[in-house]
UniProtKB/TrEMBL annotation:
Residues 115-205 form the CAAX prenyl protease 2/Lysostaphin resistance protein A-like domain. Keywords: Hydrolase, Membrane, Protease, Transmembrane, Transmembrane helix. It comes from Rugamonas rivuli. GO terms for biological process: CAAX-box protein maturation; proteolysis. The chain crosses the membrane at residues 6-26, 38-58, 64-88, 109-128, 158-186, 193-213. This is CAAX prenyl protease-related protein. GO terms for molecular function: endopeptidase activity. It comes from the Bacteria.
Amino acid sequence: MFEPAALRRVLPFFVYLAFIFVADMAERLGLGPAELRWLYPVKILAVVAVLAWCWHSYEELRDWRLGWGGCALAVAVGLLVLVLWINLDAGWMQVGTSAGYDPRTDGRIDWLLVAIRIAGAALVVPVMEELFWRSFLMRWIAQGDFLRLDPARAGLKAVVISVVLFGIEHNLWFAGMVAGAAYSLLYMRSRNLWAPIVAHGITNGVLGVWVVMTGQWTYW
């Protein structure tokens, strides 16, 4: 059984995943795509509530000091992952199909939905996912007492397993693995979880802008 420190890093991620089941049940009950879009704000609010409740225990988030060089590197990694993400989309690099998130109503974009989607993806999801995938899972695979483990000493096995699982979580599994590897290496190099959070946020935020500009809703 996981100790409290682990559970506090797992719970926000599992709340996020639980909404896949909620969406499926809602669809079975007859809700259409237009109504189901509003599950996303509910999901984000639920994750924010859990993160806020557990925030006092996230000791790895107490050090905000990345420095200008660290911030620049995180932004560069985030943009590089974005470029790779929208190009690593060959047939063999995908599993299944993604319905995406279409914020249009009668052909017109609902900008409130767009704002919520981008804010959730850029500000909330990176914190939730990096706490789970990098701070917890990668280090926990290497050492049960994961909070005492220097990220730089996680080891190849822990990195590979967590990166593969992170990739499988996404429809674009290969791009997901590339992103996971980039964020993991950034965390190991900086020893500061805010580095991959910033990079992840840049990737998701700029991707959202690109999706709206191009209408490539399946990337959402």
